[in-house]
Amino acid sequence: MAQQHLETPGAEGCAGDVVAAYLREQATEFLRSLRQHRESGGAASGTAAEETAEAARALRRSARRVSGTLHTFRPLLDPDWSDALRPELAWLSGMLAQEHEYAARLERLLAALHRLSGPYAVPLQPVGSSSAGAERVGTAHAPRNEKSASGQLTVGAAKAGALLERQLTLARTRAHSTALQALGSSRFHAVADSVALLASDVPLRPATADLKTLATAAQTRLTEAVTALPLHQAGHPYNAEALVQGLTADTAPPSQDAPWHHVRLLLRLHRYAQEVVDADAPEADAEAAAALDRHRDAAEAAAAAAHAARTPRIAPATAYALGVLHADQRHEVEAARFAFQRAWLKEAVRTP
Prior knowledge:
The protein is an all-alpha fold. About 70% of the residues lie in helices and about 0% in strands.
């Protein structure tokens, strides 16, 4: 992707003021979202639950932006203060995300099971194929006796769905309880106090770099990480039948998702840096970011299916259905990688 030209607002000496203004804005949003979360009472169901979830999302958004800004523009800020606050914000954001992630993962997996075991399920197509269904993921390649495999999948899908619902609902309930406890802890109150101080007083130090240099460095790190990805392999599907058989034998292949997750993080930092540099600029790389979000969701859903398939003493049909589900989600991973490749190359052409 070609380097974008970043304009530095104001003189170099104003770089700290620009970052401070952005941090104050995000800290104010954090405190506003925290008040809304407390007013909703942390409910687990009903209208109040929707308000709680929205307030938690807003809290996470502002926490991520503050943390990302502290990372990218660290030379402009007091290093001891920023290094102490960043991991606490990461803890808070991750803790608040867990309940939502478990719920979304369960919804995704149950929808996939319903699609895969339905009467109109079709074989997986290689991503990027010229066929009409190339970008739609269907059921994994079944064994040679397709009629027998279809019946086995139909029988196992209901039990597989019930198993996933038990496991992920329990995990969601625990995450909800953990979040409520954390939001009442001294650790959280210390984070909230630090952000409250940040809303009025940002600890700066004499500028050692300007905004353009620091934002460009974030973009360079992203570009280098994308260059290291095997983009030429994006869209080549896994051997789905081997995945199904491997899971039922309790041996799952390595996924090698970590470099893609790292690029997702760097892309987020790059986008936040762009917000600091020019708040009125159009959102950069939104299509690529959405593809990496889908990649993360599919990879974690596949891992959840694999975990469920290793539950002791489950029926062979249930294990088979979970293996098919795992293979389906791994194909979704490949589809997301292919979508990211196309979005990234398209952005490179658009930004000379």
